[in-house]
Amino acid sequence: MKLIDCPRDAMQGWPTFIPTAQKINYLNTLLRVGFDTLDFGSFVSPKAIPQLADTAEVLDGLELSSTTTKLLAIVANLRGAETAAQYPQIRYIGFPLSVSETFQQRNTNKSIAQALDEVARTQELCARTGQEQVVYLSMGFGNLYGDPWSPEVLGEFTQKLDILGVRIVALSDTIGASVPETIAPPFRELTAAFPHIEFGAHLHTTPSSWHEKVQAAYGAGCRRFDGALGGYGGCPMASDKLTGNMPTEQLIDFSVEVGAKLPLNELALDEAKKLNQAIFAAH
Predict the structure, then answer these.
(1) Among 75, 36, 95, which residue's Cα sits nearest to residue 224?
(2) Is the pTM here over 0.90, yes or no?
(3) What is the pLDDT of residues 138-191, one digit of tens each?
(4) 2-282 in CATH: which number?
(5) Counting Cβ atoms within 10 Å, is residue 93 exposed (0-12), middle (13-18) or buried (19+)?
(6) Domain boundaries in the chain?
């Protein structure tokens, strides 16, 4: 079982700017915890996400010599991928590709066909730099727009990504629509049809529904999970009516439940939890 902590997703929509030095301190603590991967920042237009305009500066401050955790940066287009490719410290370049035509247009002002072309060009870029692309299939568990969704649709997208050579695909719960009935069938079918691809789950949840969602994905063969400490991202986990990121703490609890041994530094994790609360309570 792999844990990917996503402070980038927790911070990106935060209404007040988190100082760069504070981000660096928090991320360096997370790097000491022992997560497989840290989704630490993004290279997108500062107009779109001003909170992460300092990603390059943050990267310069990260202590990478003594960590086994790999870095992942999110991009929204080929230009962002070309920027991320300039930093060999970044192992993974994450690209969101929507299975909903409506959302693809709203999110990136591109069609799915245009976005797929950029995925292909990003894959070629990664082949040259030695980095690896992670494609997030957003609206992976359904959408509000009436666009086609089914495990078969997800399979068609994955087939196209497979041909391009993409080897990590994460189904993403963009709007908090996931329920066990829409989580388990796609993972069951995709892991069987594409055993050479690593499938991940980027789930959103309310406090009461996290376990059933993780169990559905895990039981259907998923072993890669995204989370964010405190469940921040989208909406903070303030009440059962709100839908935020899957809390990393609960993914850790689940790993213990299923007997997955994760090499985590508990002292660093406790420190990260304290910093997490200080950051999001103060801003």
Answers:
(1) 36
(2) yes
(3) 999 998 889 999 999 999 999 999 999 999 999 999 778 899 999 999 999 999
(4) 3.20.20.70
(5) buried
(6) 2-282
